[in-house]
Design a protein that fits this description.
The chain is of the alpha+beta class and 109 residues long. Helix content is 29%, strand content 30%. The chain contains 2 helices and 3 strands, in the order H-E-H-E-E. Strands 1-3-2 form a 3-stranded antiparallel sheet. The radius of gyration is 25 Å and the shape is elongated. The N and C termini lie far apart (59 Å).
Length: 109
Amino acid sequence: MKKILFFTMISLMLSLVISGCSKIIGAKVERDVQYVVQFNGSDFNVGDIVTSEMPYNDKNPNIRSMLLNKAISENKCDAILLPRYEVISKTFGKNIIKVTGRAATFKTK
């Protein structure tokens, strides 16, 4: 009796999973969407000046975004205010890119 109940439950669950799934016919993702968000200085708790750096690759068009994301994650903040980017040339070795700005977190209401 228990085996029959077990197999009935398994078959019922499988039939629900199979019948509930549908194919995706098509999806479109816009990559060129630009967002404009405006904040006031009173929306942030502004912290200290922070710096982050990584090896510079001029063939990577997203190097600044990657560096900004790295700086935000390293400093556990929500945004870097007034970021300033510098490419530091090395005579021997790889060039580096450096961002400097103020770490800021959003105020809670």
